[in-house]
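Recap from last week: sequence in, structure out.
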Amino acid sequence: MLLLGLVLVLSGRAQLAPPVVTISLDEEPAGRWDPLLGAFDPDFLRRAAAQVIDTTVPKWLHEAVIPLVLDLEEYIPQPYAGEIRGLASHLGSPSDVILLNFAYEISAFCTSIVAQDNAGHVFHGRNLDYPHPVLRNLTMDVIFLKNGEEAYRGTSFAGYIGLWTGQSPNKFTISGDQRGTDRWWNWWKNVVSAFILRRSPVSWLVRETLEEAKDFQDAVMRLSKTPIITGVYYIVAGARAGEGVVITRDRANAADIWALEPVSGGWYRVETNFDHWLPPPARDHRRDAANKALNATGQDHISMETLYQVLSLYPVCNGGTVYTTIMSAATPEKYNTVVRPQGCPPI
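Predicted structure tokens:
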């Protein structure tokens, strides 16, 4: 069964530290994810994967992925094709792993915040919300090694090869939020057609950027211009003052880049799942709650601790919140994720 870490109690709510899985990029792709079995029971993984697939993926998509499975390397580039084949030896068939990754590719409702204090320190936090409670038992921190040293790390779900949250130490941090403009039924069609067109899933681009980008500016360029399968928000923070942006993505390129402007009062940026220049839906109060909490905190008091407090307030944190991550590229050792077993119900 899942190995649970230290239990913390914050604001009266139990928090769990996720297991840490170390992946060596020097290993062949098919064997890279074998360490997953040191943190999760294989039978539990298969049952959980089946639950996520059955409740998320439409039935017609099971047939649609058959061409991908028959000629995996034709449609999915390395190292991902090899990693999918390796995971399939533990989780089921390659089609099961592909469907699971399709299901995880929907990040659902999220909140990301990048903020800078008066001394120029940049902090980055995110809540990831998802409608499947089982994901709280699949959440893990992953450390990716290259030549025996940490290349980057992130927070993800067991069986998923992409990343929605990650850090390249002393360079930049990234979080991804679903852009709430695509209809659910069109989204799945877009996923399949985009794979055929060889476009990158949004979470794969996060991982590739963490691995390859040399600095904050390079990361922003890659995340702005690389074609992807659907719209998304990429929130990026660097290691130096002023390095923070929200990138609003269309499939082909950036529709907008919203940067920190600390000198003129723009010391933080809040992104949920809607374009920042438009009002959110009347039912969604996360943006307003986060803005009010940050203004009450003030730039002189913002820190990793107070940012966590903002992300713990209802409805910024809500019943669907799976985990919260706080990070700062300039202090990579402080990267911290907590799993929220009950989310954050109204108090």
